[in-house]
């Protein structure tokens, strides 16, 4: 029997696995998409201590290798539910069931959608949620990126080297992303900031032809002529599989404080999927270690 089943193989989950193994317990990490989480598609990480510049893919490889070398197991399955059985838990996946001593939820979050006309129609053929993945399809073309956080700012920088023209569309007149990165972007000749603008629709026939916007101050509408739209408006969690066992907040994040303890003893939570203010690689790694220590304490206490 595994001591700790960790749901999600992003930075939080893999860090938890490292700490569980180092505490002499056995960890199983389950992720429906493999391993790495959101950071895999980040071209350059510049704020993880010890690395002034490293690609997300390289960083993730190193964390994964470290967890594997310590003896953690990884499986690619989808977790569909968790039930209590005495002081143990039964975790159900698409492939079967696991009885484990403790569970760490580290499911991260996925891209938020805009829910505007045209978004669904052109998804995968002109509307993208990942500039690093799909950017090259827009070589020499005009594109718009929607969002004002670090993802949108970074995507705009990536796309400025690929596309002919990049519009960065944000609903307020102030960015949420890091000032240094915004300043660097402002100096790019082919990048134009379109501020205080709300996206209304992605337009086009067989292919994307435009992005319809509303100026939130004047109410005026206009359409940017673009061939592609990148949506980078933040993330939403997906914790529905755990909703019967742990308390979620109104946005679907697992309720927990800095101690990573959920409303159910024996189930812990780490990383972007929990209620918190700062969602960063560093805080995901911190949660991984805190949740692992709490899980080990639970196992020892209930043995
Ligand atoms: P975020 O920081 O939550 O920003 C989302 C942006 O989308 C906000 O500017 C928000 O506008 C806008 N937005 C939300 N809903 C919208 C809608 N319906 N229509 C139009 N705009 C909408 O998300 P993120 O950029 O994906 O970043 C998530 C977390 O990861 C953040 O903590 C970020 O710092 C971190 N991150 C870090 C790095 C890095 O450090 N290298 C890279 C990427 C991401 P408002 O500003 O008006 O709310």
Notes on the structure:
The chain is of the alpha/beta class. The protein has two domains: 177 residues, 3-Layer(bba) Sandwich (FAD/NAD(P)-binding domain); 119 residues, FAD/NAD(P)-binding domain (3-Layer(bba) Sandwich). It contains six helices and 17 strands. Strands 1, 2, 3, 4, 5, 6 and 17 form a seven-stranded mixed beta sheet that branches. Strand 1, helix 1 and strand 2 form a beta-alpha-beta unit. Helix 1 runs parallel beside helix 6 and helix 4 runs parallel beside helix 5. NADP nicotinamide-adenine-dinucleotide phosphate (NAP) binds next to helix 4.
What's a quick, concise take on this entry?
With 303 residues, this protein is an alpha/beta fold. The protein contains six helices and 17 strands.
List the helices and strands and how they pair.
Layout (H helix, E strand, L loop, with lengths): L1 E6 L3 H12 L4 E4 L25 H14 L3 E3 L3 E7 L2 E6 L2 E10 L4 E2 L15 E2 L2 H4 L7 E5 L3 H11 L4 E5 L9 H8 L4 E4 L2 E8 L3 E8 L5 E5 L2 E4 L3 E2 L30 E3 L11 H21 L2
Parallel strand pairs: 1-2, 1-6, 2-3, 6-17, 8-15, 9-10, 9-15, 10-11
Antiparallel strand pairs: 4-5, 5-6, 7-16, 12-13, 13-14
The protein binds NADP nicotinamide-adenine-dinucleotide phosphate.
Keywords:
303 residues; alpha/beta; FAD/NAD(P)-binding domain; 2 domains; seven-stranded mixed beta sheet; five-stranded parallel beta sheet; 6 helices; elongated; binds NADP nicotinamide-adenine-dinucleotide phosphate
- Summarize model confidence as the mean pLDDT: 96
* CATH fold topology of the largest domain: FAD/NAD(P)-binding domain
Tally the structural domains: 2
Class based on secondary structure composition and strand pairing: alpha/beta
Apparent shape: elongated
How many strand units?
17
- The CATH architecture of the largest domain comes to 3-Layer(bba) Sandwich
CATH class of the largest domain: Alpha Beta
| N-C termini distance | 13 Å
Largest sheet, strands/sense/barrel: 7 strands, mixed
- What string gives the helices and strands in order? EHEHEEEEEEHEHEHEEEEEEEH
Proportion in helices: 10-25%
């Amino acid at each position: 029997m595994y001591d700790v089943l960790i749901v999600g193989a992003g930075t939080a989950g893999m860090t938890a696995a490292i700490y569980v193994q180092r505490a002499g317990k056995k960890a199983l990490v389950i992720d429906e998409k493999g391993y790495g989480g959101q950071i895999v598609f980040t071209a350059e990480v510049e704020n993880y201590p010890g690395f002034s510049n490293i690609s997300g893919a390289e960083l993730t490889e190193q964390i994964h290798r470290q967890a594997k070398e310590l003896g953690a197991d990884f499986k690619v399955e989808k977790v569909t539910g968790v039930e209590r059985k005495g002081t143990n838990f039964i975790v159900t996946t698409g492939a079967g069931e696991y009885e484990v001593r403790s569970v760490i939820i580290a499911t991260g979050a996925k891209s938020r959608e805009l829910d505007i006309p045209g978004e669904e129609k052109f998804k995968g053929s002109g509307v993208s949620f990942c500039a690093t993945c799909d950017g090259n399809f827009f070589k020499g073309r005009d594109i718009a990126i929607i969002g004002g956080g670090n993802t949108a700012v970074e995507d705009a920088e990536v796309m400025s080297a690929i596309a002919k023209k990049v519009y960065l569309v944000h609903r307020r007149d102030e960015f949420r992303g890091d000032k240094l990165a915004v300043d660097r972007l402002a100096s790019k000749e082919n990048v134009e900031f379109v501020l205080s603008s709300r996206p209304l629709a992605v337009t086009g026939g067989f292919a994307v032809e435009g992005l319809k916007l509303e100026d939130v101050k004047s109410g005026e509408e206009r359409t940017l002529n673009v061939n592609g739209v990148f949506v980078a408006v933040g993330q939403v969690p997906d914790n529905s599989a755990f909703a019967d066992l742990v308390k979620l907040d109104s946005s679907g994040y697992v309720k927990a404080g800095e101690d990573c303890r959920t409303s159910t003893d024996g189930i812990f939570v780490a990383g972007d999927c929990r209620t918190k203010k700062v969602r960063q690689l560093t805080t995901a790694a911190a949660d991984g270690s805190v949740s692992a220590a709490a899980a080990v304490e639970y196992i020892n206490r209930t043995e």
